[in-house]
Structures are given as C-alpha cells and as structure tokens.
Amino acid sequence: MENKEQFGSSFAAIAAMAGSAIGLGNIWRFPYMVGEYGGAAFILIYIASSLLLSVPIFFSEFIIGRRSGANCLGAMRRLAPRSRWRWLGVLCILTPSIILSYYAVVGGWSLSYLLRSFTLGFPESFGSFTAAPWKSVIAFAVYLGISCLIVAGGVKKGIGRFSKLAIPVLFVLIVVLAIYSVCLPGAGAGVDYLVKPDWSKVSTRTFVNAIGQSFYSLSLGMGIIITYASYISKDEDIVFSGAGTAGFDLFFAIIAGFAIMPAVFAAGIEPGTGPGLIFDTLPFIFCKMAESSPLLGTAVAIIFFLAVSIAALTSSVSLVEVPVAWLTEEHGFRRGKATLLVFLVTGTVGALCALGFGPLAAVKIFGHSLFEAFDLLCCNFLLPLGGLLCVLFVGWKMKPENFHDEFTNGGRLKFNEKIFGVIRFLIRYVAPVAVILIFLSNFL
Prior knowledge:
Layout: H1 10-21, H2 24-36, H3 40-68, H4 72-79, H5 86-117, H6 126-130, H7 133-152, H8 155-182, H9 188-195, H10 204-217, H11 224-229, H12 238-267, H13 277-292, H14 294-331, H15 335-355, H16 370-397, H17 400-408, H18 414-441
C-alpha cells in the first residue's frame, strides 16, 4: 500500500466526493421525489435527515476509509481482522455495482437527449422515447464505457482531473436554468410548491424516501466515501470535507428543484410523474426558448444536456471505482482489466434494466419493473443497511482513541475537538436508532 495512488490536491479530493454527490441524484432523482412526496415538506425532511443522519454517517465512512487506506473489503480486514465485519465490505462492493447497472441507463438517456438537442428533435414524451429500448441499450453501453475509461485513467489523472472540470460547469448551468425557469409564465405555482410545505401529504413513506434520497445523493452506504477517503491525505479536515460535500449537495439539490419544478407547473405537467420528469420538462423549456430565439434554445439545450451527462459521469465513475479498487487491491488486477470486468458485469445487468421499458416490460419483481425494483432495493434497503453498519462499526466497534485520532487529525484540529462529543453521540445513538426505525418501516 506504500504506492497507493492519491488525489493530487485537496480540491481534487473534495471535487471528487462532491461530484459523486452532485450528479443525477440531484438533477434527475431529487425533483421527481419532491414531486411525488409533498413538495416543500419533503425538502425540509430531506434537509433534517441530511444534517442529523447523513453527515454523521459520512464521517463514519470517511474515518473507515482513511484509517484503513484500503478498499471496502480490505478496510474491514485491516480494522477488524478475523471478524464478521468483512460482510460490511462485501455489501459496500455489491451495492454500488447494482446501482451502477440502472444508474447508467439514466446516463444513457442523457446522452440520447444530448444528441437530440442539436436539432431540438425531442420525442413527444419520455414514454415514447423509452418505447424504442434498443436505442436506450446502445446509449447505456456508450455511457458506461465512457465512465469506465475515466476510471481506467487512474485516481489522480482520471477521476480527480475530470471532477475538477465538471462540477463548476454544471453549477453555472443549473443556476442559469433555474433563473430562466422561475421566470416562465405560470411558474409561480411551482415556486410555491417548493417553499410552502403541505404537511397533510406527509406520511411514513415521505420520511423513508427523504432519508433514502439523502443516502443516495451523498453516496452513503455504498462504499464510495470509504474508497475515496482511502485516497485522501491524513492532513485533510474531515469536518471540512463532510460539511462541504453535504452543503454543496443540499444547495445544488434545491437549485435543481427550482430549475425543474417551476417549469413543470408552467408546462402543465403532473409533478409526480416519476423518473422521466426532467426528460419531459427540460425539452419544454428549451423549445419555449427557441420560440423567441432558435439559436439560443438549441445552444442552451446542447450545453445543458452535455452538463447533465458530465454530472452523471462524476457519479458513475465513483460507482465504478468501488469494485475496481477491490479488484486491483485484493486480487491484483491491473486497472484496465478491472474496469473491463466491471463494464461487462454491470453492462449485462444494466441492459436488462433498459429493456425493462420495452421487450421485458412484462417482467415484474413484486409488481415493479427491473429498473424500479433495483432502485427500491438499493435506496430503501441496501443503502440504509450499509450506513447503519458503518455507524455501528465506528461508534461501537472501533476503539474510541482511533475514532478521535481520525476525526481530529491527532488532536491538531481544535474545532473538530470541540464538536467531537456531539458527533460521537450522533453516530453512536441518534443515527443508528433513526435508520433502524426507517428500515423497519419498509416492512409495515
């Protein structure tokens, strides 16, 4: 491990973790979850769950990764040798592999819409687009291949360099789109929907999905933070990295909501339309722009879907990196061979998910398509389980002095020293109880 690769700078490390968080989880998933579960009420629950649950879990995973300096399975072997905690490592490798298989399908959709942006030749509806599934399969394969190529370039030159370039571009574009969206005729109802809570629509499922979305967006319970933290210097401030990543994620998710939901109401589209929401609403925005300026509408459509595709890649490369790190560190694979194997395995499963909107539409798992079933399995079960095990490990299994040493950088970070007791309390008691209650609610 002496020659283990690291990110080239603090900014590269934070950009990579922020890139994992700030991706399609914010642009694609967050707006339609808001639409399905009560608007502003969902957002407030989401913010609370992020601060009280997700950030402490982030700290736990960061500590495991940096303390061990190894991939997920290697981390458990180093920190808890000859124990059953190795199954946490197995879970943290399996989960991102499943997520990657269907997440890359959405990334493929973004590539397809990018190509259509050059002529504004968007389909009449997202449903009509997915009715031609083989096009989705090809786009999915191309997208997954690009993700694997970036990872094959290495941690510093591949993931780090790409993340530093991608995040600023996406941030600027989503802000511009949000400004335009709230200025559309009829957009005021969408703004109200985002800022006025309707608590009558809140149910147990709202809490479950808000926490699931928080886990999903911050890349918790899936081994990404453990893996990325193993590439981070011992001099980095865990609180700065964690709070910065969570803060960027929250801010970006809310801005994405303002970019999407006002346009949803302006277009007269049902806000709870599900995963295809941005692929129905964004073309509407661009076509409206093109009515007054065809060149402007086309240019913004191209730039935006390019940015969406890049944002998706910042997340998918982190999903690819988890099993790749395991293959290279535990089994001696060269990075290129490891990424090829990940491409072949997840590509096979992902192709089935893409075909689930067409030829395999009749195939259901408990009444859900393959795509929906994998999404529900990961967000409502595997991610909370992974997060729960991480906080239990750091809070109860890891030696307190090791926990303190990692959190405060050996006592050198005075602010971290002051809040250590609070964070440890959240990790030991609050986060586990809350996650267990939410987890059990899935069976009610």
